[in-house]
Amino acid sequence: MAIATTNPATGETVEEFRAFDAEEISARIGRAAEAFEEYRRTTFAERAGWARAAADVLDGSARAIADVITLEMGKPVRQARAEVAKCAKALRFYAGKAEGFLADQPLDGNAVGAARAYVRWQPLGPVLAVMPWNFPLWQVIRFAAPALLAGNVCLVKHASNVPKTALRLQDVFLDAGFPPDAFQTLLVGSEAIDGIIADPRVVAVTLTGSEPAGRSVAEAAGRRIKKTVLELGGSDPFIVMPSADLDRAAEVATTSRTQCNGQSCIAAKRFIVHRAVAAEFRELFIKKMTSLTVGDPADEATDVGPLATEQGRRDVEELVADAVGQGAEILCGGRKPDRPGWFYEPTVITGVTPRMRMYREEVFGPVAQLHEAEDIGEAIRLANDTDFGLGSNAWTTDPAEQARFVEDLQAGQVFVNGMTTSYPHLPFGGIKHSGYGRELADLGIREFCNAKSIWVG
Questions:
Q1: For residues 233 and 280, what is the distance between their CA atoms, to the nearest angstrom?
Q2: Which of 145, 165, 164, 163 is nearest to 154 (CA)?
Q3: What tens digit of pLDDT does each residue of 387-422 get?
Q4: Residue 25 · residue 198 · CB < 8 Å
Q5: What angle do CA 59, 64, 66 make, to 5 degrees?
Q6: Span 50-61, mean pLDDT?
Q7: What is the tens place of the pLDDT at every residue in 320-359?
Q8: What is residue 134's DSSP assignment?
């Protein structure tokens, strides 16, 4: 895939970029390794100051950065501005919390015959991040903020369709005063990733992306015995029980399924509704989905913009066609509008069965599956009948039902009566084919640290 900015609302290629050759990649890695030797000795106070300055840069240029995000991957501009603001908050969060998260952890010295024993968290070195296009700023910041505050340096291979966003973020860190080469954007294609992982100066890898991409990176890193954190796909359930506030649940369901034009790993995708309220929820959900404004993502009034790539829309069309061809019913949407760009209508589909591809595969577009469940047991069985385990939603005011969902849903996150999202304050990650490791909170900053045990006699 060429490294290029292509407007998904029109299909027009705006600018192409030259990929780094092997010599330049090696030089960049070398600069990162040299920068680490100096950077790891900086203080938490210094790093926190730079992080707060980066947050200020983001706030000051939020509109311009949001416009670039919207241009490159089609996110409605209101959502793009919210993404920039979220990144600034995360930087400030780690600026205030990193030192406490990584403070020496006292251990029981008496138990091991020591005068003193503790764990010291220390940075590892240059970490490669392979990043996706759907949240082109947030996905990078949620890795980079904790990594940089811990004393690591960052090499970012961003998605090939968001080069302007990637380069703009590199400038944010430079403008904030971070040492040169502490954060670098690598303009490279996917074919270069294996060679970068193989370089002994790169000590670890994190990836947010598809399941096949995760397998490839994990295999390459495993051959070199390098730490990996993977956040992969999701097919999150959204369960609605009779005690739920149905109107609120339908409103959140609509937002969750169509945020980022339906291209979010933790978007709810499978809506499992108790039979007692299925008809009422179905009517509310369809009404809200059909009321959304599909259009130019640069327009403030737009709710749903285009899919980021032409292939992405083709993938959605194929999954819907496969389901309909085997008996599924489209309740609304199901078409691409007659206009330029890679748009697809918000869609609700029912009658999806295990023999259909959509039942097992992640639908990366504004398409919602609607299922009915006889009781809580069947709802949980349907929710867990997937290879993925990223996030989950459960809507009920019954304390016993809430407790059961918390205990039995197989996912990295369970959100009760609210939309699954990511916060700097909460660990984020999945199980099963949704990956392993955690980002954000205290667990995220420790992923790329050496937990060094210290024994003092």
A1: 30
A2: 145
A3: 999 999 999 999 999 999 999 999 999 999 999 999
A4: no
A5: 80
A6: 98
A7: 999 999 999 999 999 999 999 999 999 999 999 999 999 9
A8: S
Q: Identify the CA nearest to 29 among candidates 109, 127, 98, 115.
A: 127
Is 155:143 a contact under the CB 8 Å cutoff? no
Asked whether the beta carbons of 43 and 83 are under 8 A apart, the reply is no
Domains annotated for the chain, with CATH where assigned, are 4-232+432-456 (3.40.605.10), 236-416 (3.40.309.10)
Percent helix, percent strand, percent coil in the chain, to nearest 5: 45, 20, 35
Q: Is there a contact between 220 and 194 (Cβ–Cβ < 8 Å)?
A: yes
Give residue-wise pLDDT tens across range 299-311: 999 999 999 999 9
Which residues are catalytic, by number? 231, 265
Q: In this predicted structure, what is the pLDDT of residue 1?
A: 75
pLDDT in tens, 162-201: 999 999 999 999 999 999 999 999 999 999 999 999 999 9
pTM (two decimals)? 0.97
Centroid of chain to Cα 148:
19
Relative to beta strand 105-106, strand 435-436 is unpaired
Q: What is the rounded CA–CA span in Å between residue 236 and residue 86?
A: 22
- 48 backbone φψ class: left, alpha, beta (φ>0; ψ -120 to 50): alpha
Ordered alpha helix ranges (H), 12-76? 22-39, 44-60, 62-73
Rounded Cα distance, 118 and 455, in Å: 7
